[in-house]
Design goal:
Helix Hairpins, 146 residues, rod-shaped
Length: 146
């Protein structure tokens, strides 16, 4: 009965570990997606600055220049916000990784306990078998002497 309960606990711990692994994987993917978005924003900002620089060679009106500067400011702000999202996503991913690893250790401990119990059962079965063989040998010996 206790072994059956222990098997149920092992299965439950494995399911929890699998769920935490999926959660970690999703959090890590979210972090990578946000990093990719930041790279895209930064590349767009650089391209926009290059275009503005090209326009500047030919001369840009002050109103147009102000609008470009305003847009660059908005891109800078968007990059800052995206950086904050990346930091939060990284923190969440690290926390979920830690939870997953902790659960993995718990599951391994239960598995080790199950292995230990199986080994104890095997040792006990071997002892009982040896007792039976000894008993048979003793009876053969007694019959042979009689």
């Amino acid at each position: 009965m206790a072994d059956k309960q222990l098997l149920m606990v092992a299965q439950w711990e494995k399911e929890k570990e699998d769920k935490l692994a999926r959660d970690f994987q999703q959090a890590q993917q979210h972090w990578l997606t946000n990093k990719s978005k930041l790279t895209g924003l930064e590349n767009y900002r650089l391209d926009y600055l290059r275009q503005l620089q090209q326009k500047g060679v030919n001369g840009v009106r002050s109103l147009s220049y102000g609008q470009h500067q305003s847009f660059i400011g908005k891109l800078d702000k968007a990059c800052e916000e995206q950086s904050k999202l990346i930091a939060k996503a990284k923190l969440v991913a690290d926390q979920r990784r830690d939870l997953w690893l902790k659960q993995q250790r718990k599951r391994k401990a239960v598995d080790m306990l199950l292995d230990k119990k199986a080994l104890q059962r095997e040792i006990q079965a071997n002892k009982e078998e040896q007792k039976l063989l000894d008993e048979i040998s003793i009876q053969k010996f007694i019959r042979a002497r009689a």
